[in-house]
């Protein structure tokens, strides 16, 4: 049997919070152990969903870039958006996904800055789509508090 990392981390969290921390006696040690336990729980959650969150964000940004590129009026930015829109993940390692995600987000910032200087319904719609992406991305990345999930 191969233990599932997120289950192991949740078990460690429960043991640290429920058994070890109360037996320590020192408020400082109890607090430190509790923080470590919560971080282990959150790491388990991130382990379980981390690749999916990043792949989803990258796919959504590429879709946004493909839609935005034709109507920008800035040929250099349009070309970069088109290139980015056809990219794909080189691997599913979190470090590789993070690197790609950071590159795409930098381009998204540049696009958003450009769009905010434009006028008209297309620019307004693209601005809304960018803000919706950012809201959804932030929501996906929220980590639940381990005690609230219990």
What attributes does this structure have?
150 residues; mainly alpha; 6 helices
Concise account of the structure shown:
The chain has 150 residues and is an all-alpha fold. The protein contains six helices and no strands.
Tally of helical runs: 6
Question: Can you give the mean pLDDT?
Answer: 91
Task: Give the total of beta strands.
Answer: 0
Structural domains: how many: 1
End-to-end C-alpha gap: 25 Å
The main pleated sheet reads as: none
Write down the Rg: 21 Å
Structural class: mainly alpha
Give the low-confidence spans: none
Proportion of helical residues: over 70%
Tell me, what's the shape? elongated
Question: How do the strands and helices of this protein lay out in sequence?
Answer:
Layout: H1 5-24, H2 27-68, H3 75-85, H4 94-115, H5 121-141, H6 146-149
Helix pairs in contact: 1-2, 2-3, 2-4, 2-5, 3-4
Describe what this molecule looks like in 3D.
- With 150 residues, this protein is an all-alpha fold.
- It has one domain (5-149).
- It contains 6 helices and no strands.
- Helix 1 runs antiparallel to helix 2 (27-68), helix 2 packs across helix 3 and helix 3 runs antiparallel to helix 4 (94-115).
- The model has no long low-confidence stretch (mean pLDDT 91).
């Amino acid at each position: 049997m191969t233990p599932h990392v997120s289950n192991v981390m949740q078990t460690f969290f429960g043991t640290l919070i429920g058994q070890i921390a109360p037996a320590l006696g020192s408020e400082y040690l109890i607090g430190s152990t509790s923080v470590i336990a919560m971080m282990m729980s959150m790491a388990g959650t991130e382990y379980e969903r981390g690749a999916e969150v990043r792949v989803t964000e990258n796919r959504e940004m590429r879709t946004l870039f493909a839609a935005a590129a034709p109507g920008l009026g800035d040929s250099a930015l349009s070309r970069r958006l088109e290139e980015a829109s056809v990219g794909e993940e080189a691997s599913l390692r979190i470090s590789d996904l993070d690197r790609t995600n950071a590159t795409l987000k930098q381009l998204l910032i540049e696009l958003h800055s450009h769009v905010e200087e434009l006028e008209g319904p297309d620019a307004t719609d693209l601005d809304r789509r960018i803000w919706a992406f950012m809201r959804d991305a932030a929501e996906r990345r929220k980590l639940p508090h381990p005690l609230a999930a219990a």
